[in-house]
Amino acid sequence: MNRWTQTMLLTKREFVTRAKSKVFLVTMGVIALFIIAIGPVVSLFADDPEPIRIGIVGVEPAGIEEGLAARAALSEQQVEITRYDSLAAAEADLEQGTVEALLVDGTSIVFNEDESLVVLQFITDSVNTRARIALMENLGLTPAEMQQLNEPAELSVRTLVVADPEERPRRVAAFVGALVLFGTILTFGQFVAMGTVEEKQNRVVEILLSRVKASQVLVGKVLGIGALGLVQLLVIAAAALVAVNIIDIEGVSLGSIGAEIVAGIFFWFLLGYTLYAFMYAALGATVSRQEDLQGVLVLPFILLGPAFFIAQLAAADPDLAIVRFGSFFPPWTPMLMPMRTALGSAQPWEVALSIALVVGGIVLLVWVGSRVYTGALLRTGGTVKLRDAWRSTGA
Amino acid sequence: MLSVRDLHKRYGDVVALDGAAFVVSPGRILGFLGPNGSGKTTTMRVVFGLVDPDAGDVTWAEHAITDADRRRFGYMPEERGLYPKMAVREQVVHFGRLSGMGSQDAVAATDRWLGLLGIDDRAESKVEDLSHGNQQRVQLAAALVHDPVLLVLDEPFAGLDPLGVDALSTTLQDLANKGTAIVFSSHQLDLVEDVSQDVAIINRGRVVLSGVLDDLKAASTTRRLDIVVNGDRWVPDSGGRVVTDDRGRRHTLVDSDAPVGDILAEASSAGHVDSFSFEPPSLSDLFREAVGI
Predict the structure, then answer these.
(1) Is the N or C terminus of chain B more exposed, i.e. has fewer CB atoms within 10 Å?
(2) Quick check: B97 contacting A, CB < 8 Å?
(3) Is the CB of residue B10 less than 8 Å away from at least one CB of chain A?
(4) CB of B210 within 8 A of CB of B19?
(5) Partner-chain residue, chosen from B71, B83, B84, that has the shortest CB–CB distance to A211
(6) Looking at the complex, does the CB of residue B70 fall below 8 Å from at least one CB of chain A?
(7) CA A223 → CA A9, A196, A277, B46, B189, distances in Å?
(8) Which domain, by its residues, includes B232?
(9) B99: which chain A residues are within 8 Å (Cβ-Cβ)?
């Protein structure tokens, strides 16, 4: 039996006992359902543009209904027409907001409070076109000539800045990705701290340490809980895939954006989780009871917290100085660098440098964290000062 | 053979160990005695590498203890500890495997020990659902599952009912008969006297008396006088040290060359002598003498 085999046994125990817990399974199910539900909800709002609702009252211009429909077809809109017998009934509906505007006797347009230029233009165009057609018919023009006269001039449109239809979904996805990283790193980091205190509080740690080294307990715990974190991310990714397939936005391949973001999340979770897990383990080892844990858990939260706000800025503009700086600060890198990468703001050398810095941070934390963990693990009864835990492990 | 030699350990100004030493041989049971805070637990922790001594060493079979040696040791700490939400069998198997057993061996040994300790019907229960006594048995199973060559038990009898005490005594005796070296600490001196052949008494971090219990008794220059006159415990006025035990009964400790005839005469003049014994001191007498109480 070598040390690695023992460590794997510890890893397996951490993974299996937690994966079997009802709380974990239920939480994961709820998260998955919530993510899948985003699909239909987004589609509901995206697919159904509101029709323009117009009320007609009094004398009706001939062919106005066809006119409105033709005008709507031109701008790829829907129109909904309601006819009223009396002006009073029509105005009542207008006040209620059932219709947006009234066409009275084919000669006046009534709004409730604010004039909508779009609706005004819409009705005016339709009425004018019908009037013109009537005039042309009186002039005895052939249908072909009428068609020609009515044909709108084709104007080409361009913008100086070419908008990428994928940009907005990409920003949203990158930000959501950062949130997922924020949540998973903190959640599974806290599991490491809680597991550590649990073993101290149960005193099981002394039995463990009579068989294995403290460093093995530490590594086994970090690996086992990290593997559980990966499982949760897989479930989130699968749920997101289902949701994305429900949403259909023209010109946007959500699937390929998603794949890119998900790959980034997995990579940065491994680095970010490792960085924070060793910190959490060391902090967890300094307290003896779960009740005292909250006090020390604040530390990593404060450390990662600012990255949450900077991520919001990054979603709007990934090239901001604070975002660029933050993406190189190892505690924030795991949230900010994947956003910059996804939004095309990071050069390859920047990504490489940030990875190197985080790996350096991990090495430092593994060293400091293991030493504090080992020094504090067998000390019970109150909170061990970090300095004392550090000193009590042989220098 | 486990040799603990001249251990010293300080925590700041507190001296935890100040020359702790004893020897446990295969097939022998050593009772490790001492008042609270005398260094028993610290000594045991040193054996398992949980505490680094400032000076002194611990050897197994005449060599420094290795990780491989430790995996063949069994340890039941004073602070009992198990995973409360893990099932009994799963947990004992886990500890067996951590001690280097293969999966099948660990399961077989676990089932055997759970049976011997009478908790096989609770194998699938979570530890937190067990009574205190049964949790203690699981703890013992975890210490025994890998058939250790050395067994170190910190206060194993604490919290057991008389039946549990008997069962544990028998188990320890059986293990010793099979060649296991056993060290256990206890406050219950009668129990130690019944179960162990060897004792080590530690006081303020220093082992003040150790050896084969019968030899220690025989070598003692103290003798114990138990005298009952007119149905009551009686002590002579003529000297010696009067000791009152936990149950309020008095006896006298005198030198081995004390004038026994004169004392008997004094007892006879006080009334009817129901019983009179002059014999080597008990373990608790040795203990009192050694720790100076």
Answers:
(1) C
(2) yes
(3) no
(4) no
(5) B71
(6) yes
(7) 11, 13, 9, 29, 47
(8) 220-291
(9) 1, 211
Pairwise CB contact (< 8 Å): B77 & A206: yes
- Can you count the helices (H) and strands (E) in chain A? 15, 4
Instruction: Please name the residue of chain A whose CA is at the shortest distance from the CA of residue B12.
Output: A392
**Both B118 and B247 in a single domain?**
no
Q: How far is B151 from chain A (nearest CA, A)?
A: 12
List of chain A residues whose C-beta atoms are within 8 Å of the C-beta of residue B73: 210
**Are B225 and B206 part of one and the same domain?**
no
**Scanning the structure block, which residue is given the tokens 């680094």?**
B52
The answer for residues whose C-beta is within 8 angstroms of residue B12's C-beta and 6 or more apart is none
- Most A CBs within 10 Å, among B72, B94, B98, to test the A interface: B98
Does the distance separating the beta carbons of A9 and B97 come in below 8 Å? yes
Q: Tens place of pLDDT for every residue, chain A, 395 residues?
A: 688 899 999 999 999 988 988 888 998 999 889 888 877 777 666 655 678 889 999 888 878 888 888 888 877 788 888 999 888 999 999 898 889 899 998 888 999 888 888 888 888 888 888 888 888 888 888 888 877 877 777 788 787 877 777 777 888 888 888 999 999 999 999 999 999 998 888 888 888 988 888 889 999 999 999 999 999 999 998 888 888 777 777 667 777 777 888 888 999 999 999 999 999 998 988 888 888 888 889 999 999 999 999 999 998 888 999 999 999 999 999 999 999 998 888 899 999 999 999 999 999 988 888 888 888 877 765 677 777 777 766 43
Looking at the predicted complex, does its ipTM rise above 0.90?
A: no
pTM of the model: 0.78
CATH code: domain of residue B132: 3.40.50.300
Q: Which domains does chain A have, with CATH numbers?
A: 3-44+166-392 (no CATH), 52-150 (3.40.190.10)
| Min Cα–Cα distance to chain A from B80, Å | 6
- Of B67, B75, B83, nearest to A202 by CB-CB distance is B83
Rounded-to-10 torsion of CA A127, A128, A134, A139:
180
Query: Do B67 and B82 have their domain in common?
Result: yes
The answer on B82 and B206 residing in a single domain is yes
Distant-in-sequence contacts of A359-362, Cβ < 8 A, 24+ apart: A359/A271, A360/A330, A361/A275, A361/A330, A361/A331, A362/A271, A362/A274, A362/A275, A362/A278
Is residue A378 less than 8 Å (CB to CB) from chain B?
A: yes
Q: Which residue of B has its CA nearest to A377?
A: B50
Contacts of A203 in chain B (CB under 8 A): 77, 79-81
